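Notes from the pairing session

We agreed to fold both candidates in a single pass and log them together. This is the raw record for the first candidate, unedited. Please don't reformat it; downstream parsing expects exactly this layout.

Candidate A
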Amino acid sequence: MPMTLARVALLSCAIAVFPGSQVLAQSAPPAAPVTVAKPVVRDVIDSDEFIGRFQAVDEVSVRSRIGGYLQEVHFQDGTIVKQGDLLFVIDQRPYVNALNEATASLEVAKSTLTNADAQFARTQALAGTGSLSASNLDDRRRDLISAQANVRGAQAAVDRASLDMEYTRITAPLSGRIDRRLISVGNLVQADQTVLTTIVSLDPIDFYFDVDERRLLSYADEARKNGSALQQGGGGLDVTVMIADSRQKPFKGKLDFAENRVDNQTGTIRVRARFPNPDLILQPGLFGRIQVAGSNSYKAVLVPDEAIGADQDQRVVYVVGADGSVTPKSVRLGPKLYGYRVIRSGMTGDETIVVNGLMRIRPGVKVAPQLIQLPQEAANEEAPAQASVQGSDQ
């Protein structure tokens, strides 16, 4: 009997203790492990992104200065040619004959001039002794002047025939990539009319894009503050451009021209940048995305995209306190830079935020933070020279 009462007492104690332990365990769950870090704070420059197209600095439609039948073609379609390379030859036989005829006429004129010069010298000597009258001397002088003029005219005809002969060989007026031949051998070429082919220069190459009124006024304001080159047509301002091939690094160039008025239909102004192109990667007609500096250098707070959460229509980061408590903080986002997201407002840069493990955060639950240090540039990210604001602030 005493043993039975003891067992009942022990059982009653167990029933009284174990439910309380379960409630205690449910009210104090273990802290969730998360990774935390200080945001990156560094100097940045905002830039605006525009879409534009590359265009050759020089472009020439190759025509013949003389008429005739096309006799030879001396290039392969689509190849790179250098200035002075022979491209086409017009049938030279008519121009050879014209040159020979002009040369012969020049010889006759020179012979006549020699005779007229001798006659004038003889007459001048005789007139000095009174053997011939002054009128005879005037006649010889007139013949001499006429013979000299005939020589000059004949020489001009020879020069013109020589020039026409030279024009039968059509050479590249500039270095660049040549198009296909637009006329075949044997066809008649009309002087100054028939287009034989075209050539575009490749190095350097221009990039044209349009800037809207709002950004133009913003640039002008910045230019007035710091003497930026944009106030002077954009000359000399460093820019970068990206093409569709993501494997290519940004190409660096400089603004060198802006139109002198805003288009009253589109409300934009056309701007040009020039880029060196020694590898001939950039081609006329390619689209590109150019980034133009739109601000002075300033201190920016940068955080990983993984550290940014959403609370209805707001973007938030989670700040961890010294006791492990987590507090959401509303932020306004800016462009992505150096692999991070720029925080326009809402953070000072001194906070410790959750950068990994957002899914483990629960209201009222403390976390077990594991502190790491973020690098100045995120791994596997191309570090641009300027920030892009193509994505509007959120």
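Candidate B (folded immediately after A)
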Amino acid sequence: MRQGWRWFGPEAPVTLDDVRQTGATNIVSSLHQIPIGRAWTKSEVGERKSMIENTPPGRSSLTWSVVESIPIPDAVKRKGGQAKAEIEAWIASLEAVAACGIPIICYNFMPVVDWTRTELDYEISTGATAMRFDHERFAAFDLFVLQRQGAEKEYSAEDRQRARDVYEAMPEAEIAEITRIITSALPGSTTEPLTIPGFREKLAAYAGIDAAKLRQHLIEFLQAVTPAAEARGVKLTLHPDDPPRSLFGLPRIASTADDYAALFEAVPSQANGMCYCTGSLGVRADNDMPAIARRFASRIYFAHLRATKREGDGRSFHESAHLEGDVDMVAVLKELVAEDRKRSPEGEIVFRSDHGHRMLDDLNKTVTPGYPAIGRMRGLAELRGILHALGAKPS
């Protein structure tokens, strides 16, 4: 298995030399500066690849192995195969990536909002901070800040009262902060930042689109792009919904094993793969993470390894340390190692320690939310230790 690291580019607080010092060898990156929907060019991809792989004298080499992500425009999620221009632009970006020899592309199909949290610096018992999704705070935003039409029907009377109590106790600065976190698009997001009026307009555009319709749109997208990926030796990996359940009344269709099985049955090409994210899928108690890894082993080309801890209400959670929380990481890695041993070196699974606590000196620095250096390095070291114990020396 190959040790990956998400790098947000030359303006990111974490440098390529920082990455080298963590022991990671494979870079996961994207061209975040390019507007969603505009086709990437080979020269733009090549420039980033050169930045990563042209190793200075005396430095260990890095390889750009995964593009995370080429964003899928909103029109594709709403219209499926009818969004021909947007799909053609996405294929052009895929072709540029393939021409530069990058073999894996990660993407997601979450409508309107991408990965969602209510707090970015929730203090845990060690004094470090973690990202958190608090159901009551989320409901307070949905019901009383966004004031989403029909939202009250999706919450029990008890939930509505608790949300009101939370909202009324929030100072204006706290309301502004949760609004910023939810609407402004978190790092690596593949959706556009929104204002509250813009948010409502986006939600209205999805009226009449249920899970079946959204799944059909994803299938139509995959039917259009998978032949191009297959012809160029590129593996497409769908990232799970985060959190893996409906938000804001919107359907989500990559939350369970059955969701993935439906997509693989509809588009059976081996180019149609999975980004196996233990943190996202692990939020659901009914997702058996080792069983999912075993079931879809041949489709897993890229893995996000992190753990989350479900809280008392069963709907709130926070990012835990990588070997804590609700994910049995040893059991998960046993399944991934068993699959990886069947593969040629060029087909090895790329994994990265995903997210991480803000800790030690990173508490005094500007960091990318969810992606501090030290917390992720701790996670990578712990994962590397498991791999060594399993007799699978990571590359």
